[in-house]
Write a structure and sequence with these properties.
By secondary structure, the chain is mostly helical. The chain contains 1 helix and no strands.
Length: 85
């Protein structure tokens, strides 16, 4: 092999190393992006859980309101029966 062949080989190795560094850099950027998205997902999942818990509490309160209304009606009926007697 002559010196020119080594120069070509050296250039190719340099290009490969440059590409490798770019790929490593991109890989690190992607890993950082994944960590950010996972953190955002955890925040949103926690907020969703809070909203679902609040919705369930509101639904439970709504049921209590319906129950209270039925009790009021029963009391009114009982009072009407007592007054009629």
């Amino acid at each position: 092999m002559d010196i020119q062949a080594f120069d070509v080989l050296e250039q190719k190795v340099s290009q490969i190393l440059e590409r490798l560094n770019r790929v490593r850099s991109e890989n690190e950027e992607l890993r950082n992006a994944i960590r950010e998205w996972e953190a955002r997902y955890q925040e949103v999942a926690a907020k969703l859980e809070d909203v679902q818990r609040e919705r369930n509490q509101l639904a439970e309160n709504q049921r209590d309101t319906n129950k209270e209304e039925r009790i009021r009606q029963k009391v009114v009926e009982l009072l009407a029966r007592l007054e009629a007697a």
